[in-house]
Design a protein that fits this description.
four-stranded antiparallel sheet; 104 residues; globular; 10 strands; mainly beta; binds FE2/S2 (inorganic) cluster; three-stranded antiparallel sheet; Rieske Iron-sulfur Protein; 44% strand
Length: 104
């Protein structure tokens, strides 16, 4: 079942930017690339760094703590099989919505 959550204005995440939000009690990272908007878990798989504060280059985000890099379209770490959870994203009427499941 979908659980679309309004997390931000689209204007708050312009092309080439990342955004850190909270949705369904989870930190979520939003990315705006030339291929559209994407969302992953907001905590880096290394030591929980704020990946939503990372630098975005194309579709690759770099964690601000120790430099792990992920493809934001798949959540896949660039040098291993580790990956971040990914969430569907859409923009409606200037708002960013993410489909984040509610955890019990
Ligand atoms: S916490 Fe992200 S690279 Fe270490």
């Amino acid at each position: 079942m979908s659980n679309w959550i309004d997390v931000a204005a689209a204007a708050d995440c312009e092309l080439g930017q990342t955004l850190e939000v909270v949705a369904a009690k989870r930190m979520v990272a939003i990315y705006h690339t030339k291929d559209g908007y994407f969302a992953t878990d907001g905590m880096c798989a290394h030591q929980g760094g704020p990946i939503g504060q990372g630098e975005l280059c194309g579709n690759i985000v770099t964690c601000p703590w120790h430099g792990w890099q992920y493809d934001v379209t798949t959540g896949k770490h660039q040098l291993s099989s580790i990956h971040l959870d990914c969430f569907p994203v859409k923009v409606e009427e200037g708002r960013i919505l993410v489909d984040v499941p509610v955890e019990d």
